[in-house]
TrEMBL record:
Reaction(s) the record says it catalyses: 4 Fe(2+) + O2 + 4 H(+) = 4 Fe(3+) + 2 H2O
Enzyme class of the recorded protein, top EC level: oxidoreductase
Protein name in UniProt: Ferritin
Stated role: Stores iron in a soluble, non-toxic, readily available form. Important for iron homeostasis. Iron is taken up in the ferrous form and deposited as ferric hydroxides after oxidation.
Organism: Parasteatoda tepidariorum
Pfam families: Ferritin (PF00210)
Matches recorded under PANTHER family: FERRITIN (PTHR11431)
Ferritin-like diiron domain residues: 9-67
Residues that hold Fe cation according to the record: E26, E61, H64
Family named by the database record: Belongs to the ferritin family.
Length: 67
């Protein structure tokens, strides 16, 4: 995995805040989808295809946050 620059760019404060807010929303969605995937994968629920769907949604949202 390549190392990304930690150098802060000269963005307007509101622009930087908006980007950070969007990243946080994507990560929040990823965590919610992951929780749903784990719920549907429990032995007493066992809806494997639904669990798989929410796992894929979680992965997609996490990719949005980091790319």
């Amino acid at each position: 995995m390549s190392s990304k620059s930690q150098i802060r760019q000269n963005y307007h404060t509101e622009s930087e805040g908006g980007v950070n807010k969007q990243i946080n929303m994507e990560l929040y969605a990823s965590y919610v989808y992951a929780a749903m995937a784990f719920h549907f994968d429990r032995d007493d629920v066992a809806l494997e295809n639904i669990s798989k769907y929410f796992k894929e949604c979680s992965d997609e949202e996490r990719e949005h946050a980091f790319n």
